[in-house]
Specification:
Elements (H helix, E strand, L loop, with lengths): L2 E4 L5 H13 L4 E3 L4 H7 L5 E3 L4 H6 L5 E3 L12 H5 L3 E3 L6 H16 L2 H9 L19 E5 L3 H12 L3 E5 L12 E3 L4 H4 L5 E4 L13 H5 L6 E4 L8 H9 L5 E4 L19 E3 L14 H18 L14
Parallel strand pairs: 1-2, 1-3, 3-4, 4-5, 6-7, 6-9, 7-8, 9-10, 10-11, 11-12
Helix pairs in contact: 1-11, 5-7
Length: about 325
């Protein structure tokens, strides 16, 4: 009987997922420890775990073969050296957010292309100003999006862009050929060659050991002066002070951000006051009562992987631990 430990603290949703696995797969022993000490005792003979496994608990885990990450891209520190070296297979929740996040990206593309920040500022001032936009409109059928990361979210975004007639260029280390919606595909070492072709540069990539601060003053200088930078992936990939300076100095036209180098974005950061910028507080994957239930998608994926694990089948969403995704 395989044993699965749901690491503390557990959310109400995670407790429901545990009950669902127990009900659906009665041969699974699902354990919900109440605290870290209890988790460390339980994980000693566990075959699988869900959540964050600290290094002392991992060292005590003598049978652990599968670990389900609680996020698609967990925060820095989740993939520590001992976990990377451990033979345990890690899976994540990538793929369940594609429609939510690609819609949020297109909100920013459309808003920036039609001068929305300026018109929202005029609205706040009760000003009926037809010229309140901070830059010329972008006619999307004549524009190009460079999408950095064309996995699930980036691929869905490319399809959305194509729906507006845009040309799409993908940059990705893993995808072998251009997925649907991507006109051209390049490896990351070609990013500096193609970034200058983008009217929109859209980041959907995770934070990895190699890409921290990749988007800096030098990278922004390679973009068109009329281009917009959108980051919906992970904040540490982008140096926000360099981005703010690039917009202030006319190196690029503006930006849309949902993730930040430091979260929450400090109240005194200059980005708050720069024109032609759309800022949202890391809500691209936030669901509402009328939308698709992300917790249900997480539960479905966890159950599917539990079933696969018990049967000895290949797991879904296996992570390259050395790359963190």
């Amino acid at each position: 009987m395989p044993k699965l430990v749901i690491m503390p603290p557990q959310t109400d949703a995670q407790k429901m997922w545990a009950a669902r696995i127990s009900d659906t797969l009665p041969d699974f022993d699902v354990v919900l420890p109440g605290n870290a000490d209890e988790a460390k005792r339980e994980i000693v003979d566990a075959d699988a775990a869900f959540g964050n496994v600290p290094s002392d608990a991992l060292a005590a885990a003598t049978r652990l073969r599968w670990l389900q990450s609680p996020q698609a891209a967990p925060p820095p520190g989740y993939y520590y050296d001992e976990l990377i070296a451990h033979p345990v297979t890690v899976t994540n929740f990538r793929g369940i957010y594609n429609d939510h996040i690609s819609a949020h990206i297109m909100m920013m593309v459309l808003g920036l292309s039609r001068g929305l920040p300026g018109y929202m500022r005029a609205k706040a001032n009760h000003a009926y100003d037809k010229d309140a936009n901070d830059a010329e409109f972008v006619f999307l059928p004549d524009s190009t999006a460079v999408i950095v990361g064309v996995g699930g979210i980036g691929g869905a975004t490319a399809l959305q862009c194509k729906g507006f007639g845009m040309r799409t260029i993908g940059v990705d280390p893993r995808v072998g050929g251009p997925p649907d919606g991507v006109d051209e595909l390049f490896s990351p070492d070609r990013l500096t060659d193609v970034i200058g072709r983008g009217d929109f540069v859209i980041l959907t990539m995770p934070h990895t050991p190699e890409n921290r601060g990749m988007f800096d003053a030098a990278m922004f200088a390679r973009m068109k002066s009329s281009a917009y930078f959108i980051n919906i992936g992970r904040g540490p990939t982008t140096k926000l002070d360099d981005l703010a300076a690039a917009i202030d100095n006319g190196v690029i036209a503006g930006a849309g951000l949902d993730v930040y180098e430091t979260e929450p974005l400090p109240a005194d950061h200059r980005l708050w006051d720069i024109q032609n910028v759309i800022l949202t507080p890391h809500v691209a994957a936030k669901e509402d009562a009328g939308g698709a239930n992300l917790d249900e998608r997480r539960s479905d994926l966890l159950l599917d992987n539990a079933r696969r694990f018990a049967a000895g089948d290949e797991l879904l969403n296996v992570v390259d631990k050395s790359l963190w995704f």
